[in-house]
Amino acid sequence: MTTYFKLLLVTFLLALTACTSPNNKNLIIGEWTNESMKVFIDHGTSEEQVFDVPKGKWEEILLIQPILTTYTAEGVYSSVYKDLEGEVINTSNGFWDVKGDSLYLTENGVETAYHFNWMQGRAEFKGYLDWDSDGVADDLYTGVQIKH
């Protein structure tokens, strides 16, 4: 096999891979709502607490509607929290970016990274955050969200 043919074959395979790989940035853009989440809370001891919100139990356990998060093509995101009656009780916003298979959210200068696993209309987000407000991002969050 000639060097030219090998180079042509490698170029073709790289182009084919690039065309069939999902662009995670395009997958993120749009509106998402939470379906479920689980947080493994690290208290710095041998005991670990688990906060679990299974699918179908969001409103019952958290007493709020699933969070609506919107990601724009300009790299801005906003999350809207509503009580069970539909009244807005909190909002958060910041900037987002995707690098490889990770989603990076920056809010008030603090960046949090989540591994992003696309599942045909749904996605799993997994990352470490400071769930228990102890000043250390050592609590493992796994959440599933639905894209609308």
Summarize the structure in words:
- This protein has 148 residues and is α+β, with helices and mostly antiparallel strands.
- It has one domain: Lipocalin (Beta Barrel), CATH 2.40.128.
- Helices cover 19% and strands 50% of the residues.
- The chain has an eight-stranded antiparallel β-barrel with strand order 1-3-4-5-6-7-8-9.
- Strand 1 and strand 2 form a beta hairpin.
- It is globular, with a radius of gyration of 19 Å.
- The N and C termini lie far apart (49 Å).
- The N terminus is likely disordered.
**Could you say what the CATH topology is called?**
Lipocalin
Calculate the mean pLDDT score and round it: 86
Structural class by sheet pairing and helices = alpha+beta
Poorly predicted parts: 1-21
What is this structure's SSE topology?
Blueprint: H1 3-20, H2 24-28, E1 30-42, E2 48-53, H3 58-62, E3 68-71, E4 76-82, E5 88-99, E6 102-107, E7 110-118, E8 122-129, E9 139-147
Antiparallel strand pairs: 1-2, 1-3, 1-9, 3-4, 4-5, 5-6, 6-7, 7-8, 8-9
